[in-house]
Target: FMN reductase
Amino acid sequence: MKLTIVSAGTTSPSSTRLLADRLTESLTKQLGDGDGEELEVHVVELRDVAVDIGKNMVTGFPSPALQAELDAVTGADGVIAVSPIYSASYSGLFKSFFDVIDAGALTGMPVLIGATGGTPRHSLALDHALRPLMSYLRATVMPTGVYAASQDWGGEDAGELHSRIDRAAGELAGAMAGTPRSRRAGDGFSDFVPFEQQLADLGQLDV
Model:
């Protein structure tokens, strides 16, 4: 079973990567409590391919390094996507990466969304920015998203953050274990019949 982490943090260390790691740890534990299937984890650090993403958007062709990361996302059984929040939305780097993924490549993909920011006031960005983006890409977005403000990492709010992490990771674990990639939903148009063909078929019916 393959899990791909997409982290759009631009610093090292990064709270965005920290949140992604905590979600991965919880997911690994919860999958381990199930059928024991081994989890293969790949991390995509977007800052490492930022220049490649920009060139892809201009030329239309990914570099070998970027193509490998795109394949890791589209070939996964589940994705954890985490972005820092800038100006009340996901980062431009995060959006640009998903812009260069082939249309339909994430159809039915179980995706857990997460975000980090300096203040709790940006927590709604999960539902007004990240969730619509993943839904547009036809991914299956987990009901629980995880937002972590600076204050959530310590003190009395830490317990609530850990609870949200475990709940969200549990949803992704269930989706990955219950819906193998081979049974992923199609785009809804695989059985489309052109209108002209429908008229021709009607003309062949006995009345």
